[in-house]
Design brief:
ArsR-like_HTH (chains A, B); 70% helix; DNA-binding; three-stranded antiparallel beta sheet; 3 strands; HTH_ArsR_DNA-bd_dom (chains A, B); 106 residues; homodimer; Arc Repressor Mutant, subunit A; WH_DNA-bd_sf (chains A, B); alpha+beta
Amino acid sequence: MDDDKVFKALADPNRRQLLDRLCERNGQTLGQLCEAMDMKRQSVTQHLGLLEQANVISTQRRGREKLHFINPVPLYEVYERWIRKFEEGRLALLHDLKQELERNEK
Amino acid sequence: MDDDKVFKALADPNRRQLLDRLCERNGQTLGQLCEAMDMKRQSVTQHLGLLEQANVISTQRRGREKLHFINPVPLYEVYERWIRKFEEGRLALLHDLKQELERNEK
DNA sequence: AGTATATGCAGGTAATTACCTGCATGTCAA
DNA sequence: TTGACATGCAGGTAATTACCTGCATATACT
Protein backbone atom coordinates (compact mmCIF):
# COMPACT_ATOMS: atom_id res chain seq x y z
CA MET A 1 0.00 0.00 0.00
CA ASP A 2 1.09 3.52 -0.64
CA ASP A 3 0.51 5.55 2.49
CA ASP A 4 1.21 8.75 0.70
CA LYS A 5 -1.52 8.29 -1.86
CA VAL A 6 -4.05 7.55 0.85
CA PHE A 7 -3.13 10.68 2.78
CA LYS A 8 -3.21 12.80 -0.36
CA ALA A 9 -6.54 11.28 -1.34
CA LEU A 10 -7.97 12.27 2.01
CA ALA A 11 -6.48 15.76 1.84
CA ASP A 12 -9.29 17.17 -0.28
CA PRO A 13 -12.70 17.99 1.18
CA ASN A 14 -14.51 17.02 -2.02
CA ARG A 15 -12.94 13.59 -1.94
CA ARG A 16 -13.87 13.16 1.70
CA GLN A 17 -17.41 14.12 0.76
CA LEU A 18 -17.41 11.46 -1.93
CA LEU A 19 -16.33 8.89 0.63
CA ASP A 20 -19.10 10.13 2.87
CA ARG A 21 -21.65 9.55 0.13
CA LEU A 22 -20.33 6.07 -0.46
CA CYS A 23 -20.51 5.42 3.25
CA GLU A 24 -24.18 6.24 3.17
CA ARG A 25 -24.78 4.10 0.13
CA ASN A 26 -22.12 1.90 -1.37
CA GLY A 27 -21.89 1.05 -5.05
CA GLN A 28 -23.07 4.32 -6.58
CA THR A 29 -22.50 5.28 -10.19
CA LEU A 30 -20.48 8.27 -11.31
CA GLY A 31 -23.70 10.04 -12.24
CA GLN A 32 -25.23 9.51 -8.83
CA LEU A 33 -22.13 10.77 -7.10
CA CYS A 34 -22.11 13.83 -9.35
CA GLU A 35 -25.55 14.86 -8.12
CA ALA A 36 -24.18 15.50 -4.67
CA MET A 37 -21.14 17.42 -5.87
CA ASP A 38 -21.05 21.02 -6.94
CA MET A 39 -18.73 20.56 -9.90
CA LYS A 40 -18.62 19.12 -13.39
CA ARG A 41 -18.72 15.42 -13.97
CA GLN A 42 -15.18 15.42 -15.32
CA SER A 43 -13.84 16.89 -12.10
CA VAL A 44 -15.64 14.29 -10.06
CA THR A 45 -14.12 11.63 -12.28
CA GLN A 46 -10.72 13.05 -11.51
CA HIS A 47 -11.29 12.95 -7.76
CA LEU A 48 -12.64 9.42 -7.97
CA GLY A 49 -9.55 8.47 -9.95
CA LEU A 50 -7.30 9.64 -7.14
CA LEU A 51 -9.37 7.77 -4.59
CA GLU A 52 -9.14 4.65 -6.72
CA GLN A 53 -5.38 5.00 -7.19
CA ALA A 54 -5.09 5.23 -3.43
CA ASN A 55 -7.07 2.02 -3.31
CA VAL A 56 -9.62 3.68 -1.07
CA ILE A 57 -12.38 2.89 -3.51
CA SER A 58 -12.72 0.20 -6.13
CA THR A 59 -14.90 0.20 -9.21
CA GLN A 60 -16.87 -2.24 -11.25
CA ARG A 61 -18.61 -1.80 -14.56
CA ARG A 62 -22.21 -2.71 -15.06
CA GLY A 63 -23.09 -2.11 -18.65
CA ARG A 64 -22.50 1.50 -19.42
CA GLU A 65 -22.42 2.39 -15.73
CA LYS A 66 -19.47 2.43 -13.39
CA LEU A 67 -20.15 1.49 -9.80
CA HIS A 68 -17.98 2.78 -6.98
CA PHE A 69 -17.33 0.92 -3.75
CA ILE A 70 -15.51 2.05 -0.69
CA ASN A 71 -12.54 -0.02 0.45
CA PRO A 72 -11.90 0.65 4.12
CA VAL A 73 -8.78 -1.50 4.40
CA PRO A 74 -6.14 1.09 3.45
CA LEU A 75 -7.87 3.64 5.65
CA TYR A 76 -7.61 1.26 8.53
CA GLU A 77 -3.98 0.53 7.72
CA VAL A 78 -3.20 4.22 7.72
CA TYR A 79 -4.87 4.45 11.07
CA GLU A 80 -2.85 1.53 12.35
CA ARG A 81 0.45 2.84 11.12
CA TRP A 82 0.00 6.50 11.79
CA ILE A 83 -2.84 7.76 13.88
CA ARG A 84 -2.55 5.02 16.45
CA LYS A 85 1.06 5.95 17.04
CA PHE A 86 0.05 9.49 17.87
CA GLU A 87 -2.83 8.27 19.92
CA GLU A 88 -0.39 6.32 22.04
CA GLY A 89 1.73 9.45 22.28
CA ARG A 90 -1.35 11.27 23.45
CA LEU A 91 -2.02 8.70 26.12
CA ALA A 92 1.60 8.88 27.20
CA LEU A 93 1.34 12.65 27.44
CA LEU A 94 -1.79 12.38 29.54
CA HIS A 95 0.03 9.89 31.71
CA ASP A 96 2.95 12.28 32.13
CA LEU A 97 0.54 15.06 32.94
CA LYS A 98 -1.19 12.97 35.56
CA GLN A 99 2.10 12.13 37.20
CA GLU A 100 3.05 15.78 37.10
CA LEU A 101 -0.18 16.77 38.82
CA GLU A 102 0.19 14.06 41.45
CA ARG A 103 3.72 15.16 42.20
CA ASN A 104 2.50 18.71 42.74
CA GLU A 105 -0.19 17.55 45.15
CA LYS A 106 2.35 16.22 47.57
CA MET B 1 -10.78 22.24 14.99
CA ASP B 2 -10.29 22.43 11.26
CA ASP B 3 -10.37 18.91 9.87
CA ASP B 4 -9.19 20.08 6.52
CA LYS B 5 -6.01 21.64 7.80
CA VAL B 6 -5.15 18.47 9.69
CA PHE B 7 -5.66 16.31 6.61
CA LYS B 8 -3.65 18.69 4.46
CA ALA B 9 -0.92 18.83 7.07
CA LEU B 10 -0.66 15.05 6.99
CA ALA B 11 -0.73 14.92 3.20
CA ASP B 12 2.99 15.61 2.83
CA PRO B 13 5.62 12.94 3.53
CA ASN B 14 8.09 15.50 4.86
CA ARG B 15 5.58 16.71 7.40
CA ARG B 16 4.82 13.17 8.46
CA GLN B 17 8.52 12.64 8.89
CA LEU B 18 8.71 15.70 11.10
CA LEU B 19 5.93 14.28 13.24
CA ASP B 20 7.84 11.04 13.36
CA ARG B 21 10.90 12.83 14.66
CA LEU B 22 8.84 14.59 17.28
CA CYS B 23 7.34 11.27 18.27
CA GLU B 24 10.80 9.94 18.93
CA ARG B 25 11.80 13.02 20.89
CA ASN B 26 9.37 15.77 21.74
CA GLY B 27 10.36 19.40 22.13
CA GLN B 28 13.05 19.68 19.47
CA THR B 29 14.32 22.96 18.07
CA LEU B 30 14.01 23.97 14.44
CA GLY B 31 17.71 23.36 14.00
CA GLN B 32 17.50 19.86 15.37
CA LEU B 33 14.58 19.01 13.14
CA CYS B 34 16.45 20.38 10.15
CA GLU B 35 19.26 17.88 10.65
CA ALA B 36 16.93 15.04 9.80
CA MET B 37 15.43 16.72 6.77
CA ASP B 38 16.98 16.94 3.33
CA MET B 39 15.99 20.52 2.62
CA LYS B 40 16.79 24.08 3.60
CA ARG B 41 15.87 25.41 6.98
CA GLN B 42 13.36 27.81 5.49
CA SER B 43 11.43 24.99 3.89
CA VAL B 44 11.32 23.10 7.15
CA THR B 45 10.02 26.25 8.81
CA GLN B 46 7.25 26.36 6.25
CA HIS B 47 6.25 22.75 6.87
CA LEU B 48 6.32 23.27 10.61
CA GLY B 49 4.14 26.33 10.10
CA LEU B 50 1.48 24.25 8.39
CA LEU B 51 1.64 21.65 11.14
CA GLU B 52 1.25 24.37 13.71
CA GLN B 53 -1.68 25.97 11.90
CA ALA B 54 -3.33 22.58 11.88
CA ASN B 55 -2.72 22.53 15.61
CA VAL B 56 -0.87 19.27 15.26
CA ILE B 57 2.19 20.75 16.85
CA SER B 58 2.63 23.64 19.23
CA THR B 59 5.72 25.73 19.83
CA GLN B 60 7.41 27.49 22.66
CA ARG B 61 10.35 29.82 22.67
CA ARG B 62 13.34 29.30 24.87
CA GLY B 63 15.70 32.19 24.38
CA ARG B 64 16.73 32.22 20.77
CA GLU B 65 15.48 28.70 20.25
CA LYS B 66 12.02 27.55 19.25
CA LEU B 67 10.88 24.24 20.65
CA HIS B 68 8.32 22.08 18.85
CA PHE B 69 5.88 19.77 20.58
CA ILE B 70 3.48 17.31 19.08
CA ASN B 71 -0.19 17.72 19.89
CA PRO B 72 -1.95 14.42 19.32
CA VAL B 73 -5.45 15.66 20.11
CA PRO B 74 -6.50 16.82 16.62
CA LEU B 75 -5.02 13.66 15.14
CA TYR B 76 -7.15 11.63 17.45
CA GLU B 77 -10.20 13.71 16.65
CA VAL B 78 -9.63 13.15 12.95
CA TYR B 79 -9.42 9.46 13.67
CA GLU B 80 -12.62 9.60 15.68
CA ARG B 81 -14.56 11.53 13.08
CA TRP B 82 -13.23 9.94 9.96
CA ILE B 83 -11.17 6.85 10.07
CA ARG B 84 -13.33 5.16 12.68
CA LYS B 85 -16.35 5.57 10.47
CA PHE B 86 -14.63 3.67 7.70
CA GLU B 87 -13.32 1.13 10.13
CA GLU B 88 -16.89 0.39 11.12
CA GLY B 89 -17.75 0.09 7.46
CA ARG B 90 -14.91 -2.37 7.11
CA LEU B 91 -16.17 -4.46 9.96
CA ALA B 92 -19.65 -4.39 8.48
CA LEU B 93 -18.23 -5.58 5.17
CA LEU B 94 -16.36 -8.39 6.85
CA HIS B 95 -19.55 -9.29 8.64
CA ASP B 96 -21.46 -9.40 5.37
CA LEU B 97 -18.72 -11.51 3.84
CA LYS B 98 -18.84 -13.95 6.72
CA GLN B 99 -22.59 -14.32 6.35
CA GLU B 100 -22.16 -14.79 2.65
CA LEU B 101 -19.62 -17.56 3.19
CA GLU B 102 -21.77 -19.25 5.77
CA ARG B 103 -24.75 -19.18 3.48
CA ASN B 104 -22.70 -20.84 0.76
CA GLU B 105 -21.60 -23.59 3.11
CA LYS B 106 -25.13 -24.84 3.61
C1' DA C 1 -30.56 2.22 -37.46
C1' DG C 2 -31.09 6.22 -34.61
C1' DT C 3 -31.40 8.65 -30.31
C1' DA C 4 -30.54 9.19 -25.51
C1' DT C 5 -27.62 8.12 -21.69
C1' DA C 6 -23.19 7.06 -19.01
C1' DT C 7 -18.70 7.48 -19.11
C1' DG C 8 -13.70 8.34 -21.13
C1' DC C 9 -10.10 11.25 -22.82
C1' DA C 10 -7.41 15.55 -24.24
C1' DG C 11 -5.98 19.96 -23.36
C1' DG C 12 -5.98 24.55 -21.27
C1' DT C 13 -5.97 28.01 -17.28
C1' DA C 14 -5.76 29.81 -12.62
C1' DA C 15 -4.54 28.80 -8.01
C1' DT C 16 -1.73 26.48 -4.86
C1' DT C 17 2.46 24.38 -3.24
C1' DA C 18 7.23 23.33 -2.37
C1' DC C 19 11.23 24.50 -2.86
C1' DC C 20 14.91 28.01 -3.13
C1' DT C 21 18.10 32.60 -2.25
C1' DG C 22 19.05 36.67 0.25
C1' DC C 23 18.68 39.51 3.98
C1' DA C 24 16.88 40.97 8.76
C1' DT C 25 16.22 40.29 13.61
C1' DG C 26 16.97 38.59 18.04
C1' DT C 27 19.86 36.13 21.61
C1' DC C 28 23.95 34.37 23.79
C1' DA C 29 28.59 34.54 25.48
C1' DA C 30 33.26 36.36 25.69
C1' DT D 1 30.28 45.52 22.12
C1' DT D 2 31.39 42.05 18.89
C1' DG D 3 30.99 37.60 16.74
C1' DA D 4 28.51 33.40 16.48
C1' DC D 5 24.27 31.21 16.36
C1' DA D 6 19.00 30.42 15.94
C1' DT D 7 15.26 31.89 13.79
C1' DG D 8 12.05 35.21 10.90
C1' DC D 9 10.59 37.33 6.69
C1' DA D 10 10.29 38.59 1.59
C1' DG D 11 10.17 37.24 -3.00
C1' DG D 12 10.86 34.30 -7.00
C1' DT D 13 10.43 29.85 -9.83
C1' DA D 14 8.98 25.23 -11.13
C1' DA D 15 5.78 21.65 -10.26
C1' DT D 16 1.34 20.21 -8.98
C1' DT D 17 -3.56 20.61 -8.55
C1' DA D 18 -8.35 21.64 -9.40
C1' DC D 19 -11.19 23.12 -12.08
C1' DC D 20 -13.08 23.77 -16.80
C1' DT D 21 -14.61 23.01 -22.18
C1' DG D 22 -15.00 20.11 -26.07
C1' DC D 23 -15.15 15.94 -28.22
C1' DA D 24 -15.10 10.61 -28.44
C1' DT D 25 -16.74 6.13 -27.19
C1' DA D 26 -19.68 2.61 -25.38
C1' DT D 27 -24.19 0.93 -23.99
C1' DA D 28 -29.28 0.83 -23.92
C1' DC D 29 -33.79 1.41 -25.80
C1' DT D 30 -37.27 1.89 -29.47
